[in-house]
Amino acid sequence: MSQIIDGKSLAAEIDAQTMVETEQLKQNGITPHLVVILVGEDGASQIYVRNKERRAQKLGIKSTVIKMDSDTTEKELLAKIHELNQDVDVNAILVQMPLPKQIDEFKVIMAIDPKKDADGFHPVNVGRLFENEIAQTPVACTPQGIMEMFKKYQISLDGKNAVVVGRSTIVGKPMAALLLNANATVTVVHSHTKDLKEITKKADILVVATGIAHFIKADQVKDGAVVIDVGMDRDENGKLTGDVDFEKVQEKASFITPVPKGVGPMTISMLMKQTIDLTRWSV
Ligand SMILES: Nc1nc(=O)c2c([nH]1)NC[C@@H]1CN(c3ccc(C(=O)N[C@@H](CCC(=O)O)C(=O)O)cc3)C=[N+]21
User: Fold this and answer.
1) Which is nearest to 82 in space by CA: 110, 106, 107, 112?
2) CA–CA gap between residue 142 and residue 276 (Å, rounded)
């Protein structure tokens, strides 16, 4: 049986520290301000954005949600981002992904001032991450939250076999960079990988971010592995579930994250922390 990594309570611990730092900034006359742009009506995105807004409020961080129509043009969105880049009252900008198909996500990410890049998705920040030069550099929140879990549960990474399933800009690639920077031996597998199961079975650390419900079954997991589930999927009954077959895999793993109350709450905590960091770095 494995130990369940409690993302929700670790998130609360991190939030308590962020709240102290927010208060300190406010006493110096600075109110950290996060702006979230939501384009269109995607149901999941609306929930995530609401969660972010609620958390910011709880921590005393000023947050503004800008809602734009699903038929917003790329030009209109870029103009809004330029306006926010110039606005000295704004410390952090997040454009919720995915974007409607008429908008090029990479162009949007490129338009955000790297110093206000709440997600750490701008190529300048991604480049710094891959060079392991992360002082005063925002880093993708989900992988950062996962690193906090390893730290809290004293899971060592040095020399370990780490396998990342998925190669997205949001999770897979920055996760691989962070693990590499922590001296793990990193393999990234994806939809074109041959013998994926043989590779995941060798993982001491397995991070799964495929977006496919219960993609990883017990026979793909090594005994005693640390299993991190980034999935936010829906099962047949519309219930939130992960990319890992939790019930079976938890019998084999040493540590496992649940869905919900695992990686998700940590992502939001890291976003709040990063908003404070961006604010501090800018003064
Ligand atoms: N620019 C951008 N930045 C993101 O960070 C970003 C994004 N776009 N697009 C979508 C993904 C997804 N994401 C989640 C954050 C929190 C939860 C979360 O709070 N999950 C709760 C449950 C939520 C529920 O009940 O539905 C939990 O796991 O316990 C989930 C998903 C951030 N993302």
Assistant:
1) 112
2) 17
Residue bearing tokens 């829906």 = 234
Tell me the per-residue pLDDT of 56-103, one tens digit each, with 9 for 90 and over.
Answer: 999 999 999 999 999 999 999 999 999 999 999 999 999 999 999 999
Contact residues of ligand 1, CB 6 A cut-off: 47-48, 51, 94-97, 119, 141, 232, 240, 259-262, 264-265, 267-268
Task: Round to whole Å and give the CA distance between 26 and 21.
Answer: 9
Per 3-state DSSP, the chain is made up of helix, strand and coil in percentages (nearest 5) of 45, 15, 40
Q: Are 263 and 145 in contact (CB under 8 A)?
A: yes
For residue 283, pLDDT beyond 90: no
Annotated active-site residue 96? The verdict is yes
List the binding residues for NADP(+).
166-168
> Which atom of ligand 1 is found nearest the CA of 8?
29
In angstroms, the CA 234 to CA 248 distance is 18
- Residue 88's SS3 state is coil
User: Pocket of ligand 1, candidates 267, 273, 275: which has the most ligand atoms within 8 Å of its Cβ, to mutate?
Assistant: 267
Alpha helices (H) along 60-188: 74-86, 105-111, 123-130, 141-152, 172-181
What domains lie within the chain, and their CATH numbers? 29-113 (3.40.50.10860), 141-264 (3.40.50.720)
